[in-house]
Hints:
Blueprint (H helix, E strand, L loop, with lengths): L14 H20 L22 H24 L1 H23 L10 H12 L7 H21 L1 H6 L13 H19 L4 H22 L18 H24 L5 H7 L2 H15 L9 H24 L7
Helix pairs in contact: 1-2, 1-9, 1-10, 1-11, 1-12, 2-3, 2-7, 3-4, 4-7, 5-7, 7-9, 8-9, 10-12, 11-12
Amino acid sequence: MNHDTRTSATNGRIESLDQLRGYTIFGMILVNFLGNFRSMPELFRHHRESYSYADTIAPLFLFIVGMGFRLSFQRRVAKEGITAARWASAKRYSILILIGVVVYNPFEWRDWWDALVDIGFSGLLALPFIDKSARVRLAAAWGYLLLYQALFTWSPYGANQMTGNGFIDGGPLGPLSWVFNLLLGTLAYDWIESGMGAALLKRALAWGLALSLLGVAFHLEWPGIKSAWPFSQRYMTMPYTLLSTGLAFFAFASFHWLCDIKRGRLPHLTVLGMNPLVIYIFHMLLMGAQRDWIERGAPAWKALGLFACFYLICYAVAWRLHKDKAIIKI
């Protein structure tokens, strides 16, 4: 059976994309809050050299950004032309960088290299290729990733990253690795736009498996060729980026199956996914306001209770915007 996965019949939006984005926002709130409590499992925390559930969230969001970027760019080209579309995208991602600098700490540049700034620079890196063929976009993604790994391995940058003075999320060069997630997301949107239907599920699963296995392969030591490279969101080395992109394809396949094939959905995820920038900034500010009284040694029951309150506040903001049909974009 051929399923049209392109848009919702009622509002022109892609239901599976909204649902996947909402899941990512929920996961972000979950790990960013519960990761503060020592009573919570380690899978809710980032680690210098390992892989946990917390490490799946940011790459998945970059993957979704890539899907949305391809969609919005094509629509703008159809309305305004290629030059206007490029300028609008450059402006959007530049503004996102500035917002990130303000949110993270405008007075300390070492704090800038987090999600919003990474998305902004990744978008700018992807911009020259966003309208090109799938092969060109894939080649650009690999080119950026290999360049980052080469700089990490054969320049002082990598050695500095692996010290206590290193940046988070790959630091200033990190977007060279993050853009891989973004550009691979544009391929997933191509499949939706083409109306592939059930064949899309098989393709997404195949790409997920292939990239995950590649990530594991580059993680291992190759005797006489290379040492083991760590899974690390802090370092953004190839094993982490490849595995996380593979898992992003699995997540994409899951929501395609739920929303586009089975015609199901989880309504509260759609609400969360409508205004990701607002909810991200709001939850960051709310966490900052609570940081002084968060009891890191609190027992699990108390941590979960506080999370429930925190999440309901974030969801209330998302629900209000959804009810008012307010979609805030840059």
